[in-house]
Structures are given as structure tokens and as C-alpha cells.
Amino acid sequence: MDAWEAGIFDDDLAADVRADWEAELSAGASPAVATRLLVQDYADEVAGSPALAASFWIALAALQLDAGAVDPDVRDRAVRAIARGEDLERWARPGYDDFADDGDELAVDELAERRHATAALRAQLLRGPVADAA
Fold first, then answer.
1. Would you give the DSSP letter of residue 3?
2. Hey, is 119 helix, strand or coil?
3. Phi, psi (rounded to 5 degrees) for 79
4. Which of the residues in the chain have pLDDT under 70?
């Protein structure tokens, strides 16, 4: 799974989660049902990888926030992952952006931008309303 920029959905897993979320909602699923389906669908893929699990929960929380339906458990998992920096491993690796001439410098900038993006999401999640459990 690759990461290419610092935004919440700028890695393969988060982009896939967003596409699947949108497909479920387009098919008529409620945010609660879409959440349940995505958690089931991605459980094996993210198991054993704190970085992938963090990316999943962060992406799912951002999608729920946009839908105005933040599940408390999803919010708490995303907030913990952000606080621990569990998703940052993929942005901190040497060679993160193999296409850049100044890869190490770019990786540091992207890591700082990723920290900023996830911190902003964390702040929104902590002050936003949560959905009723359904």
C-alpha cells in the first residue's frame, strides 16, 4: 500500500475506504450500515499492521464526520491512532517519494504536512457531535 501525499485520503488504503464508503451510500446504505460493512470488509487487510489500521480508522472517521454521523467508537480509534502517530510510519520511511530529486527533504515536509492534516481532523472529531449508535 502506497502513500503519495499528506492528505487524509492520499494513500491507497484510505482512497479505497472512501470509494467503498461512497459506493455503499450510493447503494442506499446508511452511514451506520456502511461503517459496519467497511469494518467487516477491511478487518483482515489491516490486521497486524498498526499503520494500516490507523489509516483505516482515520479515513473512516473523516468520512463519518463529512456525513455528520460520527460513531463514538470510530472517533475514539481515530483519535488514539492520531495521538500515537501510528499512521505516520508510511510517510516517514526513506524513499517515501521515489520520484522526487530531494526525497529526504520532501519526506520530512510530507510528514509534517501529514501530522498537520491528522491533527486538524483530530480537533474536528473531538469537538464535533457524534451519531447515535444504530
1. B
2. helix
3. -60, -45
4. 1-5, 93-108, 129-134
Coil vs helix vs strand at 14: helix
pLDDT at site 111: 84
Q: Shortest CA distance to 117 belongs to which of 2, 9, 22? A: 9
Look-up: residue for cell 461503517? 35
Confidence (pLDDT) at 80: 97
CA dihedral 71, 77, 81, 82 (to 10 degrees): 30
What pLDDT does residue 93 have? 61
Cα–Cα dist 55/47, whole Å: 12
113 vs 72: CA distance, rounded Å: 26
Comparing C-alpha atoms, which of 39, 55, 48 is closest to residue 1? 55
